[in-house]
Amino acid sequence: MCIIIILIFVALINKNFIMKNYFYIDKTTQQQKGPYSPEQLKLLNLQPNTMVWSTGMENWAEAQTVKELAHLFNKNSATNQQQVLNNADCIENQKDHNLHTVKPIPKNWLVESILSAVLCCPPFGIVAIVYATKVESYYNLGDYESAEDASKKAKMWTFIAAGSIVAFAIIYFIIILVVILIANIQ
Prior knowledge:
- This protein is of the alpha+beta class.
- It folds into 2 domains: 37-101, no CATH class; 105-185.
- It is built from 6 helices and 4 strands.
- The protein has helices at residues 2-16, 38-43, 81-98, 110-119, 122-140, 144-185; strands at residues 22-25, 32-36, 51-53, 61-62.
- The protein has a 4-stranded antiparallel beta sheet.
- A hairpin with a 6-residue loop joins strand 1 and strand 2.
């Protein structure tokens, strides 16, 4: 039981360390751009009064008012402006190319995998939890194929864990039935 509690705790901590991606409104085109990580926004030379939004925010807000982005506007941060401009062009071209191909995040199977670890078979459930916690991380990094693969593996291990308890129950009842039949024969 302690192992299960630790695994749930690790899964929740892992989920809290996943970095948010932000969208912003381009002032020249008045179009939504993104999603971008805070590091990518820094390379884009985002202005403090640029409107940004991320999952979990109720409304769009100025970038300087968002706690996770406040460090981008610190005057003491040492950045090479030429590198910022070069990287911004590269990122912008990549995002414009991917703007129309954004896919939804695959199902992560985290709840189901935790339940399978607690109620069914902990070893298989643990493997399912590990894959389930990777789905959102891969997706946020822009690696959709790995996110989809992790989702499929989390689903597979969740079903293996659930199936193992069913198989165990069937074997258990067969053994009980055999023992009863042998006892009745003698």
